[in-house]
Amino acid sequence: MAKTLEMQFVNEQGKTVTITVDAPKDSLTKDEIAAAMDGLMTANVFISGGGNLTSKKGARTVDRTVTEMDIK
Amino acid sequence: MAQAVLTDRQLRLVYDLGLNMEGKQVFKAKTYSNVKPAADPDQLMATAVILSGLQKYPLFAAERLDTNEIQN
């Protein structure tokens, strides 16, 4: 099972920008993720097609399960 | 005289996944686009530390990928 953390930001045009992290720690709390998102905005490294990241929108983890089927 | 002009910058994080069943070292890389051309190494390091802090595996290396266009 592949797990991905998606952090969503809002840019200057009001559009959503997603930054993902593969294989996030299972122990992550909401506060830790929020602090990381604030840190990313402070570091001011990422830009988007619609300008700078202006605020946090949300975060979610996505699980992807792959099941092989035997088809003959 | 020809000049090199920076056209694109990316941040590449290499994670250390340990040894596989054959005892071979395994790495996994994640590349982040949309990096500001003006981002300095301190900002990139701060970003690398934050992103890798959310991740299960230890960070092996943080790399900056620059694309330069050669022009006359």
UniProtKB/TrEMBL annotation, chain A:
<dbReference type="InterPro" id="IPR021321">
    <property type="entry name" value="DUF2922"/>
</dbReference>
<dbReference type="Pfam" id="PF11148">
    <property type="entry name" value="DUF2922"/>
</dbReference>
<protein>
    <submittedName>
        <fullName>DUF2922 domain-containing protein</fullName>
    </submittedName>
</protein>
From TrEMBL, chain B:
<protein>
    <submittedName>
        <fullName>DUF1659 domain-containing protein</fullName>
    </submittedName>
</protein>
<dbReference type="InterPro" id="IPR012454">
    <property type="entry name" value="DUF1659"/>
</dbReference>
<feature type="domain" description="DUF1659">
    <location>
        <begin position="3"/>
        <end position="72"/>
    </location>
</feature>
<dbReference type="Pfam" id="PF07872">
    <property type="entry name" value="DUF1659"/>
</dbReference>
